[in-house]
Amino acid sequence: MRICSYVLANGTRSYGIVDGDLVRDVGETIRGQYPDLRAALASGVLSDVAEGASGSAAVPLDSLTLLPPITNPDKIICIGLNYMGHIKETGRDAPSHPSIFTRYPSSLVGHDQPMVRASVSTWFDFEGELAVIIGKAGRAIPAERAMSHVAGYTCFNDGTIRDFQRHTTQFWAGKNFDRSGSMGPWFVTADEFGNPADQSMVTRLNGEVMQSTSIADLAFDIPTLIAYLSTVCELLPGDIIATGTPSGVGMFREPKLFMKAGDRIEVEITGIGTLANAIVDES
């Protein structure tokens, strides 16, 4: 099942089931009980969401303004240096523990919405990633049970202002400029997506492949990440774990290659689809 969040023509935020190029809205009854996808996940009612949407009139997907699938996560946890190829291109040693930073919801836009290059920098880099959406709360989750806490997966672009990222040893400043990243276009439930290690990801800038990898190249796989993160804090339904980017980012190309106004960046993951965004300058 594929589920997206969006803004209806009347300005109401809603969510619905993706059926090819169409979307079936959950309707007022379901939305009245579970106003967003995070609430539906927390209540464990995705089957009710599908049933409620089944009787709705289908609308064209491209007629909706898409939002990040989870619009109000409690936590967006990002993992740095988590593909072996990316670790190699940075010249660093493989970490002994996951490298962690956070993003805020205000830093993300949905599919086909513009990502914004901040006026204070021209070092705006792309980072295609697979994001995990938590479906069941848990603390100190053993790795062998971790996947039972996963609701599904989506595409993620960890758009980064590289010079601000390097101001200190903490990545936060380069990762949280408003509307600098993206997520979507929908989330695919775990049963439909299958084993993440069997999937692959490609990032394209203006149609040219920048990054290409198997998800199996993760230094810390998803069960390991969930076990480690849930040792620190309780993971909640709707929490996002962005699992890291592979090699090929603009920062480590020669010459460096950064995004600019007029560019189009795409992150495509098999089993999910393509997250695409235009780049605009901050007004």
TrEMBL record:
Record's keyword terms, sorted: Hydrolase, Metal-binding
InterPro entries named among the record's database cross-references: FAH, Fumarylacetoacetase-like_C, Fumarylacetoacetase_C_sf
Coiled-coil region: none
Domain Fumarylacetoacetase-like C-terminal: 75-280
GO MF annotations in UniProt: hydrolase activity; isomerase activity; metal ion binding
GO term, biological process aspect, one: carboxylic acid metabolic process
Gene3D superfamilies for this protein: Fumarylacetoacetase-like, C-terminal domain (3.90.850.10)
Spans through the membrane: none
Origin: domain of life: Bacteria
Family: Belongs to the FAH family.
Annotated protein name in UniProt: Fumarylacetoacetate hydrolase family protein
Native species: Oryzicola mucosus
Taxonomic lineage: Bacteria, Pseudomonadati, Pseudomonadota, Alphaproteobacteria, Hyphomicrobiales
